[in-house]
Amino acid sequence: MTRLEALVQSVRLTDRYLPMRPTQLSGGLKQRVAIARAFAGDPRIVVCDEPTSALDVSVQAAIVELLLRLQAERGLSLMFITHNLPLVRSIADDVAVISAGRVCERGSVTQVLTAPKEAYTRQLIADVPSFEHTG
Questions:
Q1: What is the pLDDT of residues 70-105, one digit of tens each?
Q2: What do you get for the CA distance between the two ends of the chain, in Å?
Q3: Cα 121 to Cα 112: distance, rounded to the nearest angstrom
């Protein structure tokens, strides 16, 4: 098996996608290709900038699961840049909140998201949509 074939398989694609153009791929497939590219150089850290923002919920879950599996298999760190606080709460150990290009608060996910010290962090948490039925 070639390195390319192994890389394609690691992101759960088949070699039938190799000749395809980006316009022929769905959003989830494009994201898998991007992940394969990010892991191609055997990095120690991968920066994931809004990796699920343009995907539907089921594809988001599959992409996050894929990233976490690759992280565990390869023993590397993932750094997520995201506005998705529920995602942060579910996968991160530590968090840094950035406002106007500066870190305004940092600490463990539990510490920052449960007892935020900064007004900006409190506003981010307050702005998370709630889907609780009120009627």
A1: 999 999 999 999 988 888 999 999 999 999 999 999
A2: 57
A3: 8
| Burial class of residue 112, CB neighbours in 10 A (0-12, 13-18, 19+) | buried
pTM: 0.82
- 111-132 residue pLDDT tens: 999 999 999 999 999 988 877 6
The amino acid that residue 126 corresponds to is A
Residues 77, 91: contact at Cβ < 8 Å?
no
Cα 121 from Cα 135, distance rounded (Å):
29
Token readout for 91 is 């996968």
Closest by Cα among 29, 61, 47, 112 to 18: 29
Cβ-proximal residues to 59 (8 Å cutoff; 6+ apart), any chain: 27, 28, 31, 52
